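Students often ask why we bother encoding 3D structure as a string. The short answer is that it lets us treat folding as translation between two languages. Here is a chain of 213 residues written in the first language.
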Amino acid sequence: SSSSAAVYVKAADKVFLTLAEGTQNALSTSGSFADTGDGNNVDGTVFSKADLTVNGSGALSVNSSQGHGIVCKDDVVLASGSATVTAAKHAIQANDSVRIAGGSYTLHAGTDGIHAKNDENSKLGYIYVAGGSLDITAESDGFDANYVLRVDGGTITVSAGDDGLHAESDLTINGGDITVTKSNEGLEGARVTIAGGTQDVVASDDGVNASGD
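And here it is in the second language, the structure alphabet:
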């Protein structure tokens, strides 16, 4: 599309974007986002007002020259497959949560790599990583959770213009391999708990910052 989402989900219970084995798939928005006239601020190449799950074993590339890559107004689950997202703004944005169980993801973002925020409920807007491989290059934060950010597994590499992994509430790391090659502050949360895994952090300011009262 040159003026809107390539995939636009207006109403559904759950939506599955399944990448068929052996396929190479591409979605892009090449221009600015026009007003859809339905009251929805469509600003992502993939834009869903329902829960969105990406699965399968194929490959997907998502490009947004002036907006976000993948936007979901509910929950995003990245279950499997391989995806590359390049966006002028957030690579992946969700209102309620982003949950990553497996798969391989390369994200290039003009703002945050993965951004979760719900303006109406402060207990939503969380990010959970249980597995998979993520390589994130972001001009702002690599991960930005308005509530909690928890890592239990997976392999994460982040190069960030601001924070590598950021949570407004708890940042909890129980496992996984985390490498932050560039950041202002590497690991930041109101409370930071590191109970496992490996962390290799490069920061121009704090490596680990517990910023709460």
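Translate back mentally: The mean pLDDT is 96. Keep this in mind for the problem set.
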